[in-house]
Amino acid sequence: MEFFSAETARQLLLMMAIFWAAYWLLRVFLFRPVYDLLEQRRTEIATALEIFERAKGETEAELDLQRSRLAEARGRARSRRDELRKEAQARRQEILAEAKRHGSDQLQAAQVDLDRQVATARLSLEREAERLAEQMTERLLERAS
Q1: I need a surface site. Which of 2, 14, 39, 42 has the fewest CB within 10 A?
Q2: Collapsing DSSP states into helix, strand and coil, what is residue 5?
Q3: Is-contact 20 13, C-beta < 8 A?
Q4: Beta carbons within 8 Å of 12's beta carbon, 6+ residues apart
Q5: End-to-end Cα separation, the chain, in angstroms
Q6: Digits of tens for pLDDT over the chain (145 positions)?
Q7: Total-model pTM
Q8: What is the maximum alpha-carbon separation in the chain?
Q9: 3-state class of 145 per DSSP?
Q10: Are 43 and 51 in contact (CB under 8 A)?
Q11: CA 134 – CA 131 distance, rounded (Å)
Q12: Whole-angstrom Cα distance, residue 47 to residue 86?
């Protein structure tokens, strides 16, 4: 008893030959190009990721550098501002001291001038009082005589 007939065996061999021919054609003309394209894309993506990571590292390094420069500039600005404040405070104290000296000098000059005016006014009043006393004495003597 034969399990396969010769015709069935030939058909089976023909189907196997067609299968392997189709497999080879698909492998050569479809699977290999698609696989190569996928590999190329995978390589491009890996290269792009590597470039991205390198650029990211450089950017972060530059950002850190800029941050440190900014912090340094802020520190210098803070120091300069404090220095200018101290200078301004010292200048303010000098101006106040000069104003006090000038005010004191003016006050002293005014006091001297006032004392001189008071002395002049007293002298003038004393002379006027003497003149009035003489006039009153003359009038009283004229009336008594």
Answers
A1: 2
A2: coil
A3: no
A4: 4
A5: 200
A6: 466 688 898 999 999 999 999 999 999 999 999 999 999 999 999 999 999 999 999 999 999 999 999 999 999 999 999 999 999 999 999 999 999 999 999 999 999 999 999 999 999 999 999 999 999 898 888 887 7
A7: 0.47
A8: 200
A9: coil
A10: no
A11: 5
A12: 58
* Nearest-angstrom CA–CA distance, 16 and 9: 10
CA atoms within 13 A on the CB side of 28: 6
Amino acid at site 100: K
| Six-digit token string for 109 | 């000059």
Question: What is the identity of the amino acid at 35?
Answer: Y
Amino acid at 31: F
Among the listed residues 104, 124, 126, 128, the one whose alpha carbon sits nearest the alpha carbon of residue 116 = 124
| Distance from the Cα of residue 98 to its chain's centroid | 37
Residue found under tokens 């054609």: 25
Q: How many residues does the chain have?
A: 145
Helical ranges in the chain per DSSP H: 6-26, 32-144
Q: What is the CA radius of gyration of the chain?
A: 60
DSSP 29: I
Cα dist from 141 to 13, 126, 133, 134, 135, whole Å = 180, 22, 12, 10, 10
For 54, how many CA atoms within 13 A lie in the half-sphere containing its CB?
6
Token reading at 53: 């990571």
